[in-house]
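Standup notes
- DV: blocked on the single-chain target, sequence here:
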Amino acid sequence: MRISCHKKALSLALVWWGLILASLPIGRAITNYLREHFLLNLVLILTITLLLILVLGGLFWLHRQQKISDLKVRAILFLFLSWVLGALLLERPEERWHIYHYGILAVLLWESFSGRRWQRTALCAVLVVSCGFLEESAQLFIPQRVFDWRDVLLNGGSGIWGVFVLSLQDKNQEMSERGLDS
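- DV (later): unblocked, structure below
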């Protein structure tokens, strides 16, 4: 079985990555302004709260429309919680964005493809790591931005974690369906 592409989901993933790239020239200036006015943590908390509302609302709506299984809802909620907790461990608040950006990108990429789980997992992991590396590389050409290997690791790590958890969720879903068929 080959990998097949779901164009709507892939379009959404590309739009998300485009928004990440579009934020590069202005992101540092906004962060510095918020830090100077002691608003950075407040804005982060408000943004995470808004993101949580959107994620919960979206999952609730998709579940009510029977477009997403209970297992996938649990997996995405687990991922979101793990990204929030992981982000709390980071020293600099602006580094937290890497985890959210590429975690969400991993979910969108995962939903963009179907086929054999190992192929899908490998493809999504390579894509999310490549996107994270390309984003950091683009910063070489933007004044007051720098390439940082730590950011590449944050991007790739959160993306790979998302792909890994969703791959496990798919495996559990398949096992559950096989058990019901027997």
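- Follow-up: The first strand starts at residue 4 and ends at 5.
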